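Annotated sample (chain length 375).
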Amino acid sequence: MKQVSFSLIATDGMARRGRIDTPRGEIETPAFMPVGTVGTVKAMYPEQVRETGADILLGNTYHLMLRPGAERVAALGGLHTFMDWQRPILTDSGGFQVMSLSKLRKLNEQGVTFRSHIDGSAYELTPERSVNIQMLLDSDIIMQLDECIALPAERGEIQRAMELSLRWADRSKTAFGEQRNRALFGIVQGGDDAELRAKSAAGLKSIGFDGYSIGGLAVGEPQDVMFRVLSEITPELPTDRPRYLMGVGKPDDILGGIERGVDMFDCVHPTRAGRHGHAYTRFGVINLKNARHKDDPRPLDEASPNRNCRRFSRAYLHHLVRTEEILGAMILSQINLAYYQELVLGARAAIEAGEFTTYSEITRAAWAQGDIAPL
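Output written by the structure step:
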């Protein structure tokens, strides 16, 4: 079977244009991965997600191990068959959700025990079990189990979590073994401390991974702190492996991450924003709950390559949002995911042309200009 590999096609400053080859298809980078937490990208059919330009989806280990259960998904043919998505899937390790959703949890060297946020039943998640669950799901890119803590935090606590994550990385690598048809990514921790981040990166490189993720950001720190950390840590990572910034973010976060050498992103934000009446276009975010749209016959963006941006009036979308119709969430989720894919597609072309700085300036200027003035 085809091996997972990464090719660096072009660079422009720190920005990178690449490609990840997997048995289930190519992933063009920079890439944005829509989040299919429990086996679905909310309010979207799988083929609609693909039509936006997405090459890969993210699935969530924590939620899928609770419902419907990893063993059940495996018995039903794996997550790709279960949700009818035949392209690559990356699964996170479940560690972040354990820390953020489970009020009753206990962490030790072995792993973490916790109670389900659904029914209170007890579970244990270890590095080995996390990798096993992701294999049962038939993930193409597997994440090591790590401990993610919110910022700001005391340096001693950041160091403790980083060192534990390194030990868990080693155990995750052992559990993963030698597999050519899927990849294992390590996760750089260390909070906002440059020295701890560098130590984490060095430790992960000594273990050896197929890709390197940057965790523990967008967890409470300001954007400028996140960008500083990225500027410091991406030069510490191998140039011949993909770099993945976990859980980020809004369009400006993604553009800033690309500027600092990140290849892969994921976030629930575009679909969540769509369900709450917000649309992302080249004019920035448009709040369709706002009453100024109720008599506006214009589309969101008549020049958009996305048909839904041209097809429906602002007045109609406002009506759907205000009446809480399901169709409103479906249309706006599609519009938002399509815009995110347009953003990274434009970044790829700009990097190849050596014009990424210009692309960033033009894109941000359009956001700053804002929505088209109302009638």
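Annotation: Residues 5-266 form a domain with the TIM Barrel fold (CATH 3.20.20.105).
Annotation: The chain has a mean pLDDT of 95.
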